[in-house]
Amino acid sequence: MVQNEIAENLLDAGCEDSDIERIMNCVNAGKTEDARKQIEACRRKALEQMHACQNSIDRLDYLQYRLERGE
């Protein structure tokens, strides 16, 4: 995979600049396993953010439900 493509995918995935730099340093040094671990850390962070957003949506849905019922 071309390095520009890796960096672009990381950016499109919402990774922070510092994470992208760290991952690209690993890639450039041939430390594929370290890069993979860093990517997994970014994935975990994105998943936590997604869960937090889902929790917010659930709470808003509940408020709408209560208001529609006149409670």
Polypeptide structure, described:
This protein has 3 helices and no strands. The model has no long low-confidence stretch (mean pLDDT 96). The relative contact order is 0.09. The chain has one domain. The chain is rod-shaped. The protein has 71 residues and is an all-alpha fold. Helix 1 (3-12) packs antiparallel against helix 2 and helix 2 packs antiparallel against helix 3.
Rg over CA atoms, rounded to whole Å, is 19 Å
How far apart lie the N and C ends?
A: 56 Å
For the record, the count of structural domains works out to: 1
- Summarize the helix and strand pattern as letters: HHH
How many separate helices?
3
Could you report the average pLDDT, rounded to the nearest whole number?
Answer: 96
Tell me the major beta sheet: none
Helix/strand/pairing class, anyone? mainly alpha
Reconstruct the topology from this structure.
Elements: H1 3-12, H2 17-28, H3 32-68
Helix pairs in contact: 1-2, 2-3
Brief synopsis:
This protein is an all-alpha fold and about 70 residues long. The chain has three helices and no strands.
Output the keywords.
71 residues, mainly alpha, rod-shaped
